[in-house]
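If you are new to this repository, start here. Below is one unmodified record pulled from the training split, so you can see the exact layout before writing a loader.
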Amino acid sequence: MHPSVFSEQTVVDRAISDICILLQCSRHNLNVVSVGKGLVMGWLQFLEAGRKFDCISSPTTAYTIPVHVEEVKDIVSVAKYILIVEKESVFQRLANDKFCNANRCIVITGRGYPDIPTRRFLRLLVEKLCLPVYCLVDCDPYGFDILTTYRFGSMQMAYDAKILRVPEVQWLGVFPSDFEKYDLPQQCLLPLTAEDKRRTETLLLRCYLQKEVPEWRLELELMLQKGVKFEIEAFSVHTLSFLSDQYIPSKIQEVEVLPGNKI
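And here is the target side for that same chain:
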């Protein structure tokens, strides 16, 4: 972005989106790509532009997700599932716990809101490997918005939803109801801010929460009713490895508890 031409990045983003809608194409068709920020580790091998990514040889090593996902090929995996985590800190916690060694899986993080390469890469893996996909986010409106971005796509890029959304994504947690279920102390809770409440109310208006995943809506309503939020890291009050040893494995076993997770 040249500062003498464009005052803000959002101006550029809107212009590119308008061009994509006008030409009925995607950003990568225009060769408009950003520096990738997503990370992947676990039981996975693939080639990208002749470069080999061998995550299997070291399942706890993080690899940057390629920007040119259309050049990814020869995908090989013996994983049982794909786990998306919202934040790099949680991703690193799982790496330190050697989570992928004990659990034959692939772990991906978009480091917050996922960029386009991360979403396209996830969709490619699901299409090629046909694996279950679980998503772990903070118990707050921003985490929930990130979850829905993976599964339903973003409002800003609705024109690209067909190649970016991953309807197979299942919500693993963190749920508002987990606070009492896992006996977390009160100091782990934070009050919802006015902005949090406004954002939650906006999320509740989205049509897919009523039609496709009403059980997700119930959890979001519970968050608003209780007026509190908490982060994934709250489970570390039990033990540092509680997330890897207890929470995630138990949640995967119970994932069918929420009918909205069913595809």
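Two things worth knowing about this chain: The chain has eleven helices and eleven strands. The mean pLDDT is 85.
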